[in-house]
Structure formats: C-alpha cells, structure tokens
Amino acid sequence: MSEVQQQAIPAAAPAIDESYILCVDDSRTLRNIVAMNIKNLGHKVVTAEDGVEAMKILTKYKVKLVITDLNMPNMDGLTLVGEIRQNSINTATPIVMLTTESDSEKVMKAKTLGANGWIVKPFSPEKFKQVVTKVIGT
C-alpha cells in the first residue's frame, strides 16, 4: 500500500466496509486531493496507486464507490473497470472515472465496461460533489 493511504489494511486492522470510497490514482497529489474531497463530503476513504493494488482491496472488501484514474501503470482504469465488473465482490458498486481525458470514445468505452460517471481533471470541489452525489445519492 502507498504511504499516503488514508486507511491502511494490515491483517489486524478492522475490515473496510461499504461506508468507504476507494480512490485509485498513480499520482500521490491527486490521491490526496480526492481523499480530502471525499472526507469533506463526510465519507471514509481508502486509496490505491494503481488497478492492481485496487483489485487486492476489491477482492476482499465491498466499498460504496470507486473513483479511478484512467491512465495508470500496471493496470489502467478501463481494465480496472472491467475487472471490477467481472472479478470482484463489487460488481454492482458505482465507478467514476477521474481523468484528464475528455475523448468521447474513451468515455463511451468506460460506460460500456460499466463506469457510472466521469470527472475531468482539474475539477472543482463543487463538480466533484455533484458527480459523487449523483452516483451514490449522498
């Protein structure tokens, strides 16, 4: 797990539950910004630095929402969306893509794979809140 993780998952730690939102981004700065925005909305957060690390979490724990970057090493966001929808206990968990990409083809591919929303970076706290609230209802 990365050192900026908001909630570490050592073996003896309490399990992450459906009150958590998972933020996946290879940029430490972006993970911290997203984590702060999630906390400001009153939610708990756990972070991962790529899709591989995210799947380690998502095969063990059910979360409320996944917010993931598109372009990451090891496993990109589109692959992660497909893996979540096929190979985790979070198959119905909402997923929001967070990226600098606004290419309509990539947006459609993400939606086809099962993404529920899209936030283009940079984003304002208001835009972040609007998308998260629309997707999870709070």
Which structural class matches the secondary elements? alpha/beta
Name the CATH architecture. Answer: 3-Layer(aba) Sandwich
As for the number of domains, it is 1
- State mean pLDDT (0 to 100 scale): 87
Which residue ranges are poorly predicted, with pLDDT under 50 across at least 5 consecutive positions?
1-5, 8-13
CATH homologous superfamily - what is it?
Answer: Response regulator
Total strand segments: 5
CATH class: Alpha Beta
Note the main sheet: 5 strands, parallel
- Whole-angstrom Rg: 13 Å
How do the SSEs run, as a string of H and E?
A: EHEHEHEHEH
The count of helical stretches stands at: 5
Your description of this structure?
With 138 residues, the chain is α/β, with parallel strands linked by helices. It has one domain (20-133): 3-Layer(aba) Sandwich (Rossmann fold). Helix content is 39%, strand content 17%. The chain has helices spanning 28-40, 51-58, 77-87, 104-113, 125-136, and strands at 20-24, 44-48, 65-69, 95-99, 117-120. Strand 1, helix 1 (28-40) and strand 2 (44-48) form a beta-alpha-beta unit. Residues 1-5 and 8-13 have low confidence and may be disordered.
